[in-house]
């Protein structure tokens, strides 16, 4: 079969491995359940603290296993105790960008610029509200902005 006969999968689709079940001890993470990425967000992460050095390595390890190598993460500077400019995670340098948008998201970059937008649920969130926000964030029909999800009524469609 010639290379041109090989079907090409656009880089914007989530790989099948993204839908694997989580193992105990992995970060509290949900990714969109379809490859289409039609919603406003591609997933949601609920860290256990505001310490990025403690929280990010597990997230990056998990995302790398599902999406491929992660090169950069953009984070809201107000949501974290400290934001270094880079961390070494699994023997790879991951660059961290601080921004002051305050929208409750993390912008995760893999490869040559393909990025994923994750809702970051505040660590102090009540479990029911956090689970509802994470579930809503990954719906294909979600049109609620990230900053509104943790406070959104979980009964709304």
Describe the structure.
The chain has 157 residues and is of the alpha/beta class. 17% of the residues lie in helices and 25% in strands. The chain has two helices and seven strands, in the order ββαβββββα. The protein has helices spanning 52-67, 127-137; strands spanning 28-31, 43-46, 70-76, 86-89, 92-99, 105-110, 114-120. Strands 1-2-7-6-3-5-4 form a seven-stranded mixed β-sheet, with helices on both faces. β4 (86-89) and β5 (92-99) form a beta hairpin. The longest helix has 16 residues, at 52-67. The chain is globular and about 40 Å long. The relative contact order is 0.19. The model has no long low-confidence stretch (mean pLDDT 81).
């Amino acid at each position: 079969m010639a290379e041109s006969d090989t079907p090409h999968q656009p880089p914007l689709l989530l790989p099948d491995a993204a839908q694997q079940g989580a193992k105990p001890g992995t970060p509290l993470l949900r990714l969109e359940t379809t490859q289409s990425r039609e919603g406003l967000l591609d997933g949601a992460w609920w860290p256990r603290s505001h310490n990025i050095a403690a929280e990010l390595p597990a997230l990056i390890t998990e995302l790398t296993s599902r999406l491929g190598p992660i090169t950069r993460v953009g984070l809201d500077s107000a949501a974290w105790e400290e934001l270094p400019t880079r961390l070494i995670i699994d023997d790879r340098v991951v660059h961290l960008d601080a921004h002051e948008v305050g929208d409750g998201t993390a912008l995760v970059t893999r490869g040559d610029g393909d990025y994923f937008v994750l809702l970051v649920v505040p660590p102090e969130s009540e479990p029911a509200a956090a689970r509802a926000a994470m579930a809503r964030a990954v719906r294909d029909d979600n049109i609620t902005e990230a900053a509104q999800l943790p406070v959104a009524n979980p009964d709304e469609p």
